[in-house]
Amino acid sequence: MTLTHLNQQGEASMVDVTDKDITDRSARAQSAVAMSSEAFAQLQAGNNKKGDVLATARIAGIQAAKKTADLIPLCHPLALTKVQVDFTLDPANCTVNIASYCRLAGRTGVEMEALTAASVAALTIYDMCKAVDPAMVIGPIQLQEKTGGKRGHWTPHSTGEGA
């Protein structure tokens, strides 16, 4: 079986995963938001006028992972069993590092959901801090790991076909 987003007429379509085995699948992604020392100090102290930046970004990332099929064309709607979004503050570089994790038992992977969670969490941090620093930089956004499915375990340093 060849998986493709093109149907027999050469038109974009959702991949049919009906015949794929249900396996435990997970994915981890990361992103970062670099900001000015003033914006970082405000975030770290919890003094942002819009509220708790990291709590809001965590909820936004989780919600986004659950809505990935509504945001990314041709993605399958998935019943995620776990979504986690965590933050690590790097005061030396005035950066918020974002790590997301998604898991389910299903026929297709959760890479897009993990990447969407990390992306939307970063965008939420930007939105909440832009009044202090509109020049913040988001990225890189990267898949860090995936497990399950036909290819098994993958990391950026794996050999083979990739994600």
UniProtKB/TrEMBL annotation:
<feature type="region of interest" description="Disordered">
    <location>
        <begin position="1"/>
        <end position="21"/>
    </location>
</feature>
<feature type="binding site">
    <location>
        <begin position="112"/>
        <end position="113"/>
    </location>
    <ligand>
        <name>substrate</name>
    </ligand>
</feature>
<keyword id="KW-0501">Molybdenum cofactor biosynthesis</keyword>
<protein>
    <recommendedName>
        <fullName>Cyclic pyranopterin monophosphate synthase</fullName>
        <ecNumber>4.6.1.17</ecNumber>
    </recommendedName>
</protein>
<comment type="function">
    <text>Catalyzes the conversion of (8S)-3',8-cyclo-7,8-dihydroguanosine 5'-triphosphate to cyclic pyranopterin monophosphate (cPMP).</text>
</comment>
<dbReference type="InterPro" id="IPR036522">
    <property type="entry name" value="MoaC_sf"/>
</dbReference>
<comment type="pathway">
    <text>Cofactor biosynthesis; molybdopterin biosynthesis.</text>
</comment>
<dbReference type="InterPro" id="IPR047594">
    <property type="entry name" value="MoaC_bact/euk"/>
</dbReference>
<dbReference type="InterPro" id="IPR002820">
    <property type="entry name" value="Mopterin_CF_biosynth-C_dom"/>
</dbReference>
<keyword id="KW-0456">Lyase</keyword>
<dbReference type="InterPro" id="IPR050105">
    <property type="entry name" value="MoCo_biosynth_MoaA/MoaC"/>
</dbReference>
<comment type="similarity">
    <text>Belongs to the MoaC family.</text>
</comment>
<dbReference type="Pfam" id="PF01967">
    <property type="entry name" value="MoaC"/>
</dbReference>
<dbReference type="GO" id="GO:0061799">
    <property type="term" value="F:cyclic pyranopterin monophosphate synthase activity"/>
</dbReference>
<feature type="active site">
    <location>
        <position position="127"/>
    </location>
</feature>
<feature type="compositionally biased region" description="Polar residues">
    <location>
        <begin position="1"/>
        <end position="11"/>
    </location>
</feature>
<feature type="domain" description="Molybdopterin cofactor biosynthesis C (MoaC)">
    <location>
        <begin position="14"/>
        <end position="149"/>
    </location>
</feature>
<comment type="subunit">
    <text>Homohexamer; trimer of dimers.</text>
</comment>
<feature type="binding site">
    <location>
        <begin position="74"/>
        <end position="76"/>
    </location>
    <ligand>
        <name>substrate</name>
    </ligand>
</feature>
<dbReference type="InterPro" id="IPR023045">
    <property type="entry name" value="MoaC"/>
</dbReference>
